[in-house]
Amino acid sequence: MKVRTPITDGVVPTLCRMCDTRCAINVHIKNSVIAGITPFENHPVNEGRICPRSEAAIDLFYHPDRILKPLKRREDGSFIEISHTRALDEISARLKHLKKEHGAHTVGVWKGEGLGFYQQEGYARRFIRAFGSPNYFSNDSACYNGRYLGNHLVCGFWNAFPEFNQAGLILLFGTNPPICHPPFTRELADARENGTRLVVIDPRLNPMACYADIFAQPYPGTDGALGWGLINYLIQTGNYDRDLVQRHVIGFEKIAAYARKFTPQYVQAQSGIYAHVVETIGRLIVKNQPDISIFSGAGLEHHENGVNSIRTLVILSCLSGALGRPCGLYRPEPLGTGELSLDRTLPPTGKNPIGRDKFPVLYDIRKECHTMTAMDYMLGKGEYPLKGLIIAAANPAVTNPNTAKVEKALKSLDLLVVNDFFMTKTAQLAHYILPATTFLEREELHFYPKLQRVNLTRCVATVDGVIDEYRVWRELALRLGFGDQYFPWKNESAVNHWLLAPTGLTVDLLHNHPQGYVYKPIRYQKHLSENLPTPSGKLEFASPYLKQLGLDEIPVYRPPYHRRHTDNRFPLVLTTGARKSLFYHSRNQNIPRFRNVHPDAEVEMHPDDAAHLQIENGEKVHVISKNGRLTLRVSIKHHSELRRGIVEIYHGWEDWRVNFLTFDEINDPISGFPLLKGVPVRIEKAAF
Amino acid sequence: MKIVFIEQDRCLACRNCERACAFQDSRNFDRESTNIWVHVNMDHRTIFTLTCQQCEAAICLDACPTAAITRDPDTDAVIVDEKTCIGCRMCIIACPFGCIHFDSAKHIAVKCNLCSGVPKCVQNCMSGALHYADINELAAVKRHKSNRPRHNTALLPAKEDRQ
Ligand code: SF4
Questions:
Q1: Among A174, B48, B67, B91, which residue's CB has the most CB atoms within a 10 Å radius?
Q2: Contact A450, A159 (CB under 8 A)
Q3: Helix, coil or strand: residue A118
Q4: Per-domain residue ranges of chain B
């Protein structure tokens, strides 16, 4: 590969995009080679530290398996290299054909996590609307949207990351910060030094639970019961924010009446958390009100009752007085850039967006279609067929539930285009693969809403012949006849100028602020002077909007599937998706030194369950669900790490795809999320 | 002199230091080849992290029969010269903290050399538990902390909560 760097020798400050926390880094260039990555000292996100994934950006950039030329699949399934011009010509001709013969709505785009961030999403959304289809899909429909919706439905906004170091009590639900959000560890440690209490709720005891005052291990998917129990505790003891309830809440009576049955004993029966632990957590909340940080990770949304569990916790935060507080729910303001998405100016007309009939809230609030329903449309079981799909660095053949169906659906497409770095399981099914640029090869705006800070990343190097993501969309748009109108900017730098134009900030200014630029000072407690951005302007403990859609007005607790249905054939409960520190979902498995840390897939088991089945540590077993089977190694954990009856498998392995076992048809009625963390399975010894 | 020290109460056991250390030398990983160790004791729910303290009177250095262990003139780190080391393992026996290990591929003793003054483990410690500084800074940090309000760690209601 022929690499060019804007400078031959020197240091360029930019951001790491090996995970979504986006730490500030210095990239060292020697003789036009990217020689090292070290922390940038003065950014508040990472304060001069990085994690080992960051340096692996160099491995990613120079990886010998990286795709550098467009590939086209031949009849026999093999791929041949073709030129960019030919690839883009052929793809656009086939898109035109699909549009003409079957309608624009038979084509969709699917945004993933790998290429960029804010702009990656913006381009994909813009392209598909300009093309004339309502069908925008993304990885967010299995991670992120559930939390987004849960928070928005109650308060009309979501601040994903509170200021932990301002809290008196932190409650973490279903998250493992040292692995999922490494920079949080500094804030948590700062908080602990100031005497902040820490409560960790997770079905899996991660090492950081050793750092907590209280670790409680619920059955998967029962967090909602604990949330209601704590709401009940606050109401019964009269320790909730009465002023807030009087002035800013609708539906308090309804939730107060419903909460009554969630006594500590009832919560114990539902969740497996001891009644006295529930009461102790309740007391800790009362003692530390209103400085309460309640944070839930992806753990809750991966259940079919996820959005209600999240709504319950948001209500709990509000009742504890955390609305508008730095450690709690404050509403960050956006910068107000130009909008890439055309949802407002060019709303879809004609055919229904896929999944809107089944999951109206998802489409209404996120303007995004349902990926699991899309599989049915690809397989001819929808209102209309979905025939063409452009995937920007997503890997649904690994990370979407029910892999057998996903593969069948993707294979049935008339046109599948994948823009990615490597031959992923999804790319293997594509008709065309377009080589993608890494984050080191582009300039993109990045926001830290919690800090109201913006950064502009730097292009550190380019690879001859590989065009960046913006150029891919623009070139296709030009060939399809809407490029001049919707993608008029020559390159991404011109896009950045346009995005910043309404803000008064400039590209130069941001280049001079590698520490990030604070675009507005943060205002807390905004609800005291302004309405909340919900339909009623108040906190919606009961949601008229959901009621009118026939959904739960208040976040009723429903036990998860595995607690409602017992099936002797599948006596164990599989949770998936606990993160691995050096991987990022399905990425980084091809970096050899990381692979030495996480060499192969394992199913984690409680020692008693293993003993019962006479399984030894390291033995090969079959894990079987109603949808499929997976053969892998057993790792017997310490008895405290998992509850008896619970097993865990990582979700991102290319070679051991756990989603062969998961279900796509049991979904959260609000978010449409699949059931990824409560799958009934059995384990059998694998005979050799 | 500057050493790598650990604020134990800031370590959340992410293990990034172990990895960064092992990757640094061998571009590879196995837990045996790192020079910093995070111990998680699930029975007692404790986290304890340990690395070489570059002792003033380094017993490993005294124990070495071939004078392969010396002080780095720039950093004062206690370092092993790969060429002089005969793999007799005396230093490993001598070190009271278990902070030297044997590399069975190269047949030599290996220990923390402070990465010539830019320790990778510290760079990769996101929680800020690891520092590269004079040990008196740790004393100062501890004095500062002892002057802050603190809670007891309690699974059951602590006294203050019961009142
Ligand atoms: S946590 Fe690690 S991978 Fe994520 S942005 Fe920071 S340095 Fe990069």
A1: A174
A2: yes
A3: helix
A4: 2-139
Cα(A255) to centroid(ligand 1), Å: 40
Q: For domain A561-685, give the CATH number.
A: 2.40.40.20
* DSSP assignment of A227-257: HHHHHHHHHHTT-S-HHHHHHHEE-HHHHHH
State how far the alpha carbon of A47 is from the alpha carbons of A498, A515, B93, in Å.
31, 10, 39
Pairing of strands B46-51, A432-435: unpaired
**Closest protein CA for atom 6 of ligand 1:** A23
Measuring CA to CA, how many Å separate A495 from each of A428, A517, B90? 32, 19, 64
Q: How far is A627 from chain B (nearest CA, A)?
A: 34
Answer whether A457 contacts ligand 1 (Cβ < 6 A). no
Q: Give per-residue pLDDT as tens, A510-519.
A: 999 999 999 9
Rounded distance between C-alpha atoms, residue A584 and residue A256, angstroms: 41
- The CATH code belonging to domain A3-61 is 2.20.25.90
Strands A572-576 and A646-649: parallel
A194 contacts on B by Cβ (under 8 Å): 148-149
Q: How far is Cα of residue A37 from the mean position of the Cα atoms in its chain? A: 26
* Whether residue A222 has its Cβ less than 6 Å from ligand 1: no
Question: Which residue of chain A has the CA closest to B145?
Answer: A193
Q: Does B161 touch chain A (CB under 8 A)?
A: yes
ipTM score assigned to the predicted complex: 0.94
Cβ <8 Å between A284 and B10 = no
Closest residue of A to B28, CA-based?
A: A593
Ligand 1 contacts CB of residue A657 (under 6 A) = no
* pLDDT the model gives residue B149: 63
- Ligand 1 within 6 A of A45 CB? no
The atom number, within ligand 1, closest to the CA of A53 reads 3
Domain A146-326 falls under CATH 3.40.228.10: yes
b/e burial code for range A361-398 (CB count within 10 A of at least 16 → b): bbbebbbbbbbbbbbbbbeeebeebbbbbbbbbbbbbb
DSSP 8-state symbol, A605: E
Q: How far apart are CA A651 and CA A636, in angstroms?
A: 18
The domains of chain A are located at 3-61, 71-144+353-518, 146-326, 561-685
Residues facing A620 on adjacent strands: A633
With beta carbons under 8 A apart, name residues in chain A contacting B119. none
- The alpha helices in B6-116, defined as continuous H runs, are 16-26, 59-63, 90-94
What stretches in chain B show pLDDT beneath 50?
152-163
- What's the pLDDT tens digit per position in A427-478? 999 999 999 999 999 999 999 999 999 999 999 999 999 999 999 999 999 9
Q: What is the pLDDT of residue A118?
A: 87
Cβ of residue A142 lying under 6 Å from some atom of ligand 1 = no
- Closest atom of ligand 1 to A18 CA is 3
pTM of this structure: 0.96
Domain A71-144+353-518 in CATH 3.40.50.740: yes
Rg (C-alpha) for chain A, rounded Å, is 25
In whole angstroms, give the CA distance from residue A356 to residue A677: 24
Angstrom distance (rounded) from CA A301 to CA A295 = 12
- Residue numbers of chain A with a pLDDT score lower than 70: 688
Query: Does the CB of B29 have a partner CB in chain A at under 8 Å?
Result: yes
Closest atom of ligand 1 to A21 CA is 5
What is the residue-wise DSSP string for A143-172?
A: TTHHHHHHHHHHHS---SS--GGG-SEEEE
Q: Which of A25, A27, A41, A53 maximizes ligand 1 atoms within 8 Å of its Cβ, making it the mutation to test the pocket? A: A53
| A433 token code pair | 């693969």
Is B123 close to A640, i.e. CB distance below 8 A?
Answer: no
Domain over B2-139 is classified CATH 3.40.30.10: no
Task: Spell out which residues of chain B touch residue A185, defining contact as CB-CB under 8 Å.
Answer: 12, 14, 126-127
